[in-house]
Amino acid sequence: YDLDFIIEDLILMKYLQTFFHRLVAVNRPEFVKTSDNQVNFLQHIMSIIKKDGRVGVVLPDSVLTDMGATEKVREKLLKNFNLHTILRLPTGIFYANGVKTNVLFFEKGKATKEIWVYDYRTGIKHTLAAKPMTRAHLQEFVDCYCVGHEQDRVATYSIDNPNGRWRCFTEEEVSNADNLDFKWIDLEEKDERTVAEILRDMQEESDGIAETVVRLRQLLGGITV
């Protein structure tokens, strides 16, 4: 999994999800019918992964919580894929106010048993100007992930450390949960930005959207859907 790509290109990936939905997720009889672009993007990924294929994809909270068609897609994901890790990302890293996202790591070939969750959202605040999120901020997650030797993972959460950010949810806990939006840390989230910082962030958001549109047009070339 290339976490650097995930962090650096979150915004572009958001636009590409909408594009791919329109390009390939229309009239797919094997899909659960839904108009949700994000859910259809996930369904498309699930449909093209080969056995033992591994994926890391950025998706909004709604994919983990919504009912109806979205819940059916989650059930298919848990049944046919091993959703072994969820990284909860902080708000403020997308160019849309209040958007909360996660990185879902899964592989095809066996059903989900336990799910490891790293909560890098609760009590964390990043801004585009004053405190942007960088690769270094996720070093603890990378260390906890144990790439290549996942069997050696050790939770930082415990009864003695209830605010530990790395926690394992058992197969029973996953099965009994109403959704996959796992929360346990009890920390107060505050927006400590000054007015000047808020205005600067708003300007950067506007500039970032314009830049992303240019990049997207360059990638798509003359393609129209």
Automatic annotation (TrEMBL):
It catalyses: a 2'-deoxyadenosine in DNA + S-adenosyl-L-methionine = an N(6)-methyl-2'-deoxyadenosine in DNA + S-adenosyl-L-homocysteine + H(+). Gene3D superfamilies: Vaccinia Virus protein VP39. The keyword S-adenosyl-L-methionine applies. Its EC number is 2.1.1.72. Keywords: Methyltransferase, Restriction system, S-adenosyl-L-methionine, Transferase. It holds the Pfam family N6_Mtase. Residues 31-155 form the DNA methylase adenine-specific domain. GO terms for molecular function: DNA binding; N-methyltransferase activity; site-specific DNA-methyltransferase (adenine-specific) activity. One of its GO terms (biological process) is methylation. PANTHER family: SLR6095 PROTEIN, TYPE I RESTRICTION ENZYME ECOKI METHYLASE SUBUNIT. This is site-specific DNA-methyltransferase (adenine-specific). It comes from Parablautia muri. The lineage of its organism: Bacteria, Bacillati, Bacillota, Clostridia, Lachnospirales.
